[in-house]
Amino acid sequence: NFSLRMSNLVAALLRPQLADLDVQCRRWNERHDLLAAELAKVPQIRIPRRPAKEGYVGSSLQFSLTGTNLDGVEQFLHGCAARGVEIKWFGSREPVGFTSSWESWAYVATRQSLPKTRKVLDFMCDFRIPLTFSLEDCRTIAAVIRQVAGAVLAPH
Fold first, then answer.
1. Angle at the Cα of 85 (from 80 to 88), degrees rounded to 5?
2. CB-hemisphere CA count at 13 Å for 123?
3. DSSP assignment, residue 59?
4. Average pLDDT for residues 83-91, to the nearest whole number?
5. pLDDT digits over 123-150, tens only?
6. Do 104 and 93 meet the contact criterion of CB atoms below 8 Å apart?
7. How far apart (Å, rounded) are the C-alpha atoms in residues 150 and 148?
8. DSSP state letters, 83-120
9. DSSP states of 116-144 as a string?
């Protein structure tokens, strides 16, 4: 998901990695699916369902928090971060890393009011899944997220 022109050096570095692409995609999906299954047990977390025919590479996991307000979302994010689990939030009014909304895009002259989109983004989170994480690391991360969700988000 990079927008760049490929130089000869980048291409030379990339070529040997292509042979392992299918293996790496399977590894990402193992981690993604483990996290998704564990977090699906949390009443305050909604994981989007994927169509059975859909192919994907789970290099990140998106989920929505339910039964809470913006303060609850921020408490959840801070609680996870305090335990070493960094979760990105699409609801932030200012861009943070790769998460931003149309409201902060300086290159758009006229911003639309999109209340339904805003409501979705206010509760949408994203967790990047590096391949350096083992499956046991993913179980630990899921346990931290479950613990924080149970402590700061009201059951619905």
1. 85
2. 16
3. S
4. 92
5. 999 999 999 999 999 999 999 999 999 9
6. yes
7. 5
8. TT---EETT-SS-BTTB--GGG-TT-SSPPP-HHHHHH
9. HHHHHHTTEEEEE--TTS-HHHHHHHHHH
Q: Given pLDDT bands bounded at 50, 70 and 90, which one contains residue 112?
A: confident
Q: pTM (2 decimals)?
A: 0.84
Q: Is 61 helix (H, G, I), strand (E, B) or coil?
A: strand
DSSP single-letter state for residue 3: -
Torsion of CA 7, 12, 17, 22, to 10 degrees: 60
Token pair 């993604």 is found at 32
Sheet containing strand 45-46, strands side by side = 45-46, 60-65, 124-128, 88-89
